[in-house]
Each structure stands twice: as structure tokens, then as C-alpha cells.
Amino acid sequence: MMADAAALVAMTLDAVIVAVSQGRPRLLVVDEPGQPPALPSGPLDVERDATLELGLRRWVRSRTGLEVGYVEQLYTFGDRDRRPDAGPQRQVSVGYLALVEETEPPLDARWVDVYALLPWEDQRDPEPGPEEAAIRAALEVWAAQGADADVRRERAERVAVNFGPPWDGIRALERYELLYGAHLLPEWARDTGAPPPGIDTGIALRFDHRRIAATALSRLRGKLTYRPVVFELLPERFSLLELQHTVEALAGITLHKQNFRRLVERSGLVEGTGQRARSQAGRPAELFRFRPSVQRERPRPGVGVPYR
Amino acid sequence: MMADAAALVAMTLDAVIVAVSQGRPRLLVVDEPGQPPALPSGPLDVERDATLELGLRRWVRSRTGLEVGYVEQLYTFGDRDRRPDAGPQRQVSVGYLALVEETEPPLDARWVDVYALLPWEDQRDPEPGPEEAAIRAALEVWAAQGADADVRRERAERVAVNFGPPWDGIRALERYELLYGAHLLPEWARDTGAPPPGIDTGIALRFDHRRIAATALSRLRGKLTYRPVVFELLPERFSLLELQHTVEALAGITLHKQNFRRLVERSGLVEGTGQRARSQAGRPAELFRFRPSVQRERPRPGVGVPYR
DNA sequence: CTAGTTATGCTCACTGGGAGCATTATGAGC
DNA sequence: GCTCATAATGCTCCCAGTGAGCATAACTAG
């Protein structure tokens, strides 16, 4: 029996390129006339790219001019119906997460607020906005509409688990999938020909790209807690409040200022530079820098995000 | 500019199928005459398999007779040199982790102790065995042989971080990659034509399959701590000691018995059945079963493995 | 009945994190 | 210069989770 029968498929590398600016997480999208925005996507150059990651870096550089720092493979998407435009060839996409410091809007692309795509993921404001309230209400309706009692119970459970309390930021992907399965996203209508949902559920992307973005957010939120990835998104020197705001932007929740400071300082993640930020108002903050040697001391250094 | 130029590649689905029996984690390999053991691997059927995961389930079933329960995509491997036997076509593999309850040895395949592949990952015995001692010694030598002081320091750091203390079970993949990079694995010799390492570093698999196995172990150890995946590996009813031994087998460390019991019972992960195990020696243990509704109550239920 | 073995109950100390009060250092407006 | 608003920073108190170990209960083998 052959151990290595292989299928021929068409593969692209899709990138979720994330930056944080003005307290909001943003990701890069590209526009094509007459189409929803899409994640930047490029091919593997089978001849030149020794690895998938090098392929991604190459075309991101050539296309957007960005030299991405941190890169991490997310997931490989290969559902049959993910690219309805394609022929019989299976369209497989390897999704990547890349982190960059805020920059000029790059060539042929623009930054979009992550929470314009996934509005329910921003829980920094304790009162849910009208969009989120509508989504929660629609989920209740969906749960109550199950065919029989078992289905209704199971739906209600999924809603309760994923939309909390307690809020679990890492469940971003599961929330996206729940909304898709509840037919509350325009993607569902697009993929099935059903009528569009009556409520605003954020900006949809092309193909399954919003799902890939949700995957990236989940992964990034998880990683935040046990690896020092935030610093990829910050300038070399930063105040603790800037650090906190960046973490909060990604995590989608607010944190207790004094405790955050205590945690970060005690963890050895950062060291003071002695420099002060010029202050707008209030006492000027000390500027800190990341202390890479923390990896030697603590096996899993991350900023404390109390997800649970 | 095309947003969707795609490369044609040859894709397989490789499975790390894990079970735990007699206190040892095992994974399934297939043998081909004259070759090292390999992970079971199969093609996507582009016509029939609507998703990659369904494709994996289909060929695992048809080939081994196993109906796998829990399945999770691990990583996609696409390095140019990962399949030196291949022609110009890029050979891409999507690795999956699957968990099954212990079974008869399936068709055309056999169970292999995970720690026969990755002997340094079993830290349940506080004294390192002779193999592990040799590996650690060889790593020290490698670190000391760096070209200049910076390289030596960086190597020593990587060794210290990955081989602890404190021991971090989740770094299994990083340890594998460190050993590969230190030229201590026969795979390095095979891939580069260099002479084989002089020490025993466990059973190598074909291609990059041992790397995929290490990826699976890392992922599984991580998942253990925040999702109730252990129960996929256990019979419906089990004693708390069986549960503990299963966790220890996967985590590669030993746990404090009373505290483990307290943790598991308080977490709501299990419920007593009132039944008793027939005892070999000592007081008979109560049999417990997994309580799925724990997911409603706790957002991230897992058995406590103190990795840090 | 005794020794050996495992299950189970419980205590104690320590730590990390949640919450909030208090103090210090700055800019803006007068 | 004085006062107020605004941040940064320092510190305390409390509690839940957890590491470690002692003590007791319930079996089996002889």
C-alpha cells in the first residue's frame, strides 16, 4: 500500500498582517474592484522558496514593501467550498499571522480595524454597543428556534459558553463559527444563496478570509499570555501604559493599571531606560524596553491577560 | 496585481494517531520494507473529501480500520528538502493529531512508544537515563564549540531554556529542533550526508515524520492544560489514578497524587459513578466519568499540569 | 490477624493576582 | 506662583489556587 499517494492541489499563502495603532488592532487588506476586501495572498514560488514561511516573507516584501518580523503559521484551509470561484482544482490556503510595527499604509493595501471585522470581539467597553446587543439578541432567537428541545439546549449552551460570562478572548474563532452556523453572517448568505441576515455583523471579507482573521485573533490572544509577542508591535521604547493599551487592544478587554504594572515589572519582561516620555498631561512616564533575556529565566514569559 | 496566484503542489495528510496504554503514550507507524517506520499518510480525495479533516478520517478508517475520535490539525510542512525522494514537485504535508482509545494493533500498522522516538521527553524518572545524560552532555559540547563567544552564549542559552530547569513539557518541538540543529539526530546525517551522530537519540522516522511527532506532542501537552482532551484516551469509566497516569504519560512528568485528585474533583471535570474498581491491591478506587457539561461552567477546563 | 498497598480526607504555608487607597510629578489655566 | 486635572507610581489587603505532606480508611495476600 502506498504510503505517499498525494493529491495535486492549488496552494496560496494568505497573511493576516497585524499592527496596533492608536489603541486599535489593525490588519492589512487589499482591494480589487467590485469585490469585498481580501487578505493579502500570494503564491509559493516552488523553485525559489525553500520553505513556506520564506515564500510568505518574499511576496509580502515584494508586494507591500513590508519586512515582517514575527511570522507564525496559523492553519491550513482546504474546504471544498471555500473558493466557489475555483474549478475542480482544490484551492488550499496556508494562513499566516505576521506582526509589524505601525507603518505608513503600504503599497496596494490598507489597514482596517480588526474590530470593524469582528465587532463583538471588542469587550473593552463594558456596555455592549447596539451592534453587539443585536447580535446577542439574534443568537438568543436562533437558540430558541432549534427543532427540538435537545437542539435548543445545545444551541443555548454554545451561546453561553462562547459569549460568556466569563468572557474568553481566545474563543474568537469559535464565536465566528457560531455566528456563521447561526446564519448571522453575510458569508453564509453568499455561500448558500440564502437571504442576507437582517443585522450588522461587521465587514465581511472575500472567501473565508474573515474566518482566517478570526483564527489569527484567537491565536494571537493565546500567544500573548505565554510568549512576549506584544513587543513586536511596539517601538523599541514605550511607556507601561502604551504597553498596556496595546495588550488591551489585542485582548479586547481592559486591565487593572496598577496590577498590570506590577505583573510586567515583576516578570522581568521589561527594563527601565531611565528616560521619560514627554507628557501630555500628568506625570511623565518612564520609558521601558523589552528584555530579551527574560526567556532564559522564565520558560513561558507573557503578559498576564486574565482570560477565564 | 493578482490576489490569488496559486502554486500547484502535491499534498498528503499525515496523521499522528496517539493512544495511551500501560502508562505509556504510543503512536501508530507503518512499515515499508527497507525503510524506517513512517507516520500513516494518505491523500486528499479531491472529489469526495469536502474538507481536509474528512479526508483524513476517511483514509485512516479505510486503511487502519480505526474510527478516530478527536482530530486536530497540527501544522503544514512544506520545506523543499523534506522529501528528498521527490522530484521538482513540492511535497506538502498537512499534519494531524488524532486521539483514540487503546485498541488492537490495527491493520498494516503498529503502536510505538512515543518515548522510544523522543526519549528525552520522558521526565517521569527524576534521574536522567544514560541516553538522556549522553544527549545533555553532547549539547554542552555543541554549545562550547560555537565559532565565537556570541554563538557559544546563544547556544548555551538555548540549551538552558529548552532542557530546563524548569522543565517545560510544551517545548518538545523546540527540543527536537535544537537537537537537529546540533547535528545530534540521524535525520541530520541523512539529510546532509554528514556522518551519523555517535550517540543514541531515539528511533528516527522517515522524512520529517519525527518532527511531526514532536509537533504533536507539544500540541497535545499544551491542549491538555486547557481542554478536556485526556478523556478521549480513556475508557468511559476510570479511576482517578488511571486518569493521573494517563496525564503523566503524556506530560512526561509526575504529579502529586492528592493534589491532582483535589484539582480534578474540584474542577468539575469528572463525576463519581458510585462504582468501585476491582482492586489489585489496596483500597478499591471509585470509578469516575467525564462530565461534558463542565464546558458550560468553566471556559477553559483542563487538567492541571504545572508546566513552568 | 497482620502487613502491605492504595484511596481518600485534611491541614498548612506560600504565592499570584484582584481591588483599591495614597502619594508624586507634571501641564494648563488663572 | 497657585490651584486643579491628569497620569504615574507605590503600597496594602484579601483571597483563591496550589505545593507538600500527615493521617486515616479500605482493601488483598498471607
Written description of the protein model:
The structure is a homodimer of 308-residue chains. The model of chain A has no long low-confidence stretch (mean pLDDT 91). The first copy, chain A, has ten helices and nine strands. In chain A, the strands form two sheets. In chain A, strands 1, 2, 3, 4, 5 and 6 form a six-stranded mixed β-sheet that branches. The first copy, chain A, has a three-stranded antiparallel β-sheet with strand order 7-9-8. The first copy, chain A, is an alpha+beta fold. In chain A, helix 4 packs antiparallel against helix 5 (172-181) and helix 5 (172-181) packs antiparallel against helix 7 (209-224). Chain A folds into three domains: 10-114, Alpha-Beta Complex (Nucleoside Triphosphate Pyrophosphohydrolase); 119-201, no CATH class; 232-297, Winged helix-like DNA-binding domain superfamily/Winged helix DNA-binding domain (Arc Repressor Mutant, subunit A, Orthogonal Bundle), CATH 1.10.10.10. The termini of chain A are far apart. Chains A and B meet through strand 1, strand 3, strand 4, strand 5 and helix 4 of A and strand 1, strand 3, strand 4, strand 5 and helix 4 of B. Strand 1 (7-21) of chain A pairs antiparallel with strand 1 of chain B, so a sheet runs across the interface. The structure holds a DNA duplex (30 and 30 nucleotides).
